Give the backbone structure.
Amino acid sequence: MSNKILYFPYINVPDSAWFSRMLLYWDEVGAIIPYDYIANPEKLNSHTRELVQEGLIQQIIPSQYLWKIPNFRNAFTEYLTQLDINVLKNRRRAFIAQHMFKIHIEKMEGVERDLVELGLAKQIDYPWYYVEGDTAIEFMSYLAATLGKINELDFAPTTDNISYLNKFVSASESIITTERILEELRLEVLNDILPAPTRSLSAFEIKHFKDTYYKDLKSFRNSIERELVLIADINNPELKKRRINLFKEESSDQIELIVEAMEKSGFKNLSLTKIGTIVSAIPGINSLVGLANAVIQAFGKDDISRINPSFLYAAFAQKELLIKS
């Protein structure tokens, strides 16, 4: 699993306790930021700009990488054209009814022309396109996943919006329901395991704490990841539950040390939150479905051999955003 996460869907990152937690615990945190924001950093909001200035966010410029994905445009467009005709009709009606989001043209690499032709997008003031809502959600999920799979980037896409995760496990005209897929794919979520402040932290606070305690945070996060992988292979519910409880007991000393360090740094109102991982491949089924399959197809048949078809789609969300957790 990558030690780096790529936030999506927005250019400006959240000013939230959730995102502060991501910055504290991960080696690198990226955001998809078009070049004109690099050249004109005042376009970023103050929170995102401060994080960039402190070196806490790596700015991923899409135009520097999308040309390296051989089927980026065609794979996504083919995914859309294979949707049920009634789904496309409903999306066109929704688009006419103004159910849409803005997407910067630099993120689209030609996809915008296909969306316009399909009646799912239109250009507004350059460099922005209005894109139908569901299609925009799918595209931003697809964009983050494909960028993350480029070898030189190697980021795991991450978001605090569960609707973006759902798109990776929905299959048009499939007898497998989304709920069933999610239930099968969901690795067991560890409760009450990750110490973190309940408020958003400033760029200075995060930088100072990471400079002092990052090795301890990384060691703890790695131990959680290793345990998640082991737990995922346990089929017996009782054994799985017992393994989770044992891990919590064994981790208590590490948790106390991290909490103590955070309190010394002036972080108040700490809480223990959740960490989970969703796998975008169906156990027992050889091929991926829907948008997850489009991510693989984007790299072309010649490159599939170097991509693990059961790639991990990491998502770390607050308690209320996790499905049946």
